[in-house]
Amino acid sequence: MPPRSSDREEKDLQSAASAVVEEAATVVEDAAHVVESAAALVHEAAAVAAAWPAVERRGKPRLLRRLHEDGKVQWKHIAVYVPVLLLVIIIGAFAIWSFLEKQSVSSSEPTPLPKVTLITADPRSPFTAAWVRLLTDAEMQPTLVPLDKVEVLQGVIVLCDVPALPPSLVQDLDDFVRRGGAVAVIGQPPSAPIGSVSMSADNGLSDDSAKFSEAVSPVLARLTPGHQFWVKPSPVAFLKESPRMSVDVRWTTNARAVVMHMEKDGSRYLWFGFDPNTLAGDDNQLKVLLKTAFRWVAGQPISDGAVGPPQLAKAFTPEARTMARSGFMYSVDPLRNPRQFSVRMTNRGEKTLQNPTVKVWLPPGVTHVALGGDLLMKRNVTLTGVPEEGACLIGRPRLARGEDRVMKLEIVDVRQRRK
Question: Potential cystine with 362: which of 211, 291, 349, 366 (Cβ 3.0-4.6 Å)?
Fold first, then answer.
């Protein structure tokens, strides 16, 4: 008997309900898997966060933080080149300084010979005329002024054959010397003092020759030690010497003074005791002596050179000065700055010079000098003061063939002149 329709409908309803239940179970199971996966991800994120270091949170916007970080990176790149830039600036400044120092030294020029005013009691005397000729031959260009025509004292004042001075000229000479003026006396000195210096002399007959001193002297700079010149014996003045006087030339036999120099109270003096009319011939060394002596008395710097073993070069022995005549060229010249001088050393010889040394006699009153210029000028240069002579020594260990060196000398201290 076939089933009834009501039974079939009931079975269909039961099948549909079972299918719905199964689908619901599947959805619930899938949701459980999703929740489980999400929980696992959260757990992993928490573990990673716990492993990271704490990060400081800033209040700046993200864009500003980025610009700040970019600025830091750029400064680090620039900082690498800062030492190089500073080194370039220092080297450039040193090069400019060295160039300016060399230019200041190379611009120096030899100092012209001083003006000479020759005052005499008798312009027509053969003695005066002979001295005017000798000074002219030595390139001094003296101005001859009679004793009664003196108006202005300028240059180096030369008293030639003046046994007595008018009171007015005595006062003028005293003021001239007090201001640092220079005076040379030829023949018989005047009876009145010249400034604070008094000279006197006897009369006598000269020898037939005179001899240069072998000692180093500003008057004998660049001359041959012990050089001798000849004269015809004639009446001359014999100077009465004092401890302050430095005698540069003496008569060969009687050893009386022929040429003398001295400095007192900031002023300088010369004395000459020979007659040019009696010279046996033309003597170039005597002319050089006159030029050097008048440059020294006028306050110009004087230089002499020596080479050889250290003990000989520094002592300026006759041997060391004689060796310097072979190729050693040297000079000292004032610069535009009145407190500075250039000192030049040049080797024109055939071999290296050992211990080349230049002695510089400084202007009156200078008590302290120092090396100037850049480091290249001062390299391997030594400076030694000789205050008792108003001089200094500038030396180097050696000077190669053809080498030319220029140094700068600066006046540091000057003694105040007495009033």
Answer: 366
